Amino acid sequence: MNKKRLISILLLAGIAASALTGCRDDAGDTQVTTGGQDDVTTISDDSPYDSNGFLKDELPSDLDLGGKTVSIYVRGDTLNQYYAEQTGDIVDDAIYERNRKIEERLNVKLNIFTNTSTDFWGDRELYWDTVRGCVLSNDGSIDIASGLSNIMPVLAQEGMFHNLLSNSIKYLDFDKPWWPDKVVSEMSIKDKMHIVSGDADLGVIKYMCGIFFNKNMIEDFQLEDPYELVLSGKWTLDKLAEMSSGIYSDLNSDGIRDADDRYGFIMGNDNHAPLFVLSSGMNYTKRDNDGIPVYDLGTEKVFDLFDKIVKMMGRDDSITNNPQSPGIVCPNTFSDGNALFTTGEFCYAETYRDVKFDYGILPFPKYDENQDGYHGGVRATYSMIGIPVTADTDAATAVLEALASENYRSVVPVYFESALKVKYARDDMSSQMFDIIKSGVDFDLGIVLGPLMGNAVTSDVRSELSFAQGKWASSWAKKERGVNKALRKYVDAVLALED
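The chain above was modelled as a monomer; its predicted structure follows.
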């Protein structure tokens, strides 16, 4: 799908390509309806841009939903990215104003609700059953469903959601920058796409991943400037392994590696490990001559990549933070100043504000210096969005397009520019690194479909890389046929669905 983008203005504005999660400790059945519609600023000129230089959507100026209530079903842990009161927090206030603008503009009431807790994986059955119940009873209780990215394909293959590429879908414009190119190209199979993500979901930016580093340790060990390595194109996997070598120290002198020791590299969460495939310029799947996705993890480049990471993770200098053996529970080792490098998500910067050392952030390293640019990804905990087949598609798509475009113009800039790059970043170079990471984010169908493959792909990749198993070539040879058979089953189910 060719996109017509006005890139210079978007990059100048520092807008993220997508969005997803937040955190809230609410559990049980929660329902909120936005209120107040006065004092809303509207733009009446004919320019395609708003007053801040951001592209406007092309929803009809006279679109009127007649006061209809549109219900958005979300995860318990992401409720506060869809609904917020005015609190004085810049992100909360931006979300509040966004909802008011949408209600005023479309003459609609937004009913945003959840019945799940913050345990987004543990409550997946409840989430599935809630969407299924809505569709099977045709009760109209859900117009838009936003759920964990790698559980939504289960509902998609069951025919719970509309094909968003169908001619009957009136208001979604996937040529617009709030719908990232890579999401649409990866999630579509021929002329079918039942789930999508983008700026409608703040978590895509919050869960974008990079490498945090301890600047004090860089100086103490007289290492190369990581920022200069990035800007010169020399920040590679080999360089990460080289710089993190020889850093380990048994600080508590107990004779064992534990959370109180010093490390060169920490895999901050084993869910970050699969992103090294994307950062090396590869994908989990490729498209065959018919446009059908096929898992492609048996190439020499994949084997070489995995060998490099396994060797790095097999040293004393490297550990994986994981409460399950063979990982070590070390969530505070980096923030305590005892790690040189750690993988992390953008939202981690929110928790590093009070650390007692200077830190920075880098993109995931290149496979080698010949790679064209830096790539990376988002932890799979972001959300995909679907529109149930029983929903009023005109109302649902109008609200979803407005939600995505308003987020793109107001909420994402506030979070990224104001909260993240100013409030949480420690230096100007960190802000530049955030931009580099954001611009290189890729999405991957193979990761999203991981649980449907019996976790024989993403889960096994996490174990292979995080815990230095060193047996990928033999294990992939045994599972490749079965995994691709399961993938083809999903593809056939999707293609068989009626629009």
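The first helix runs from residue 7 to 13.
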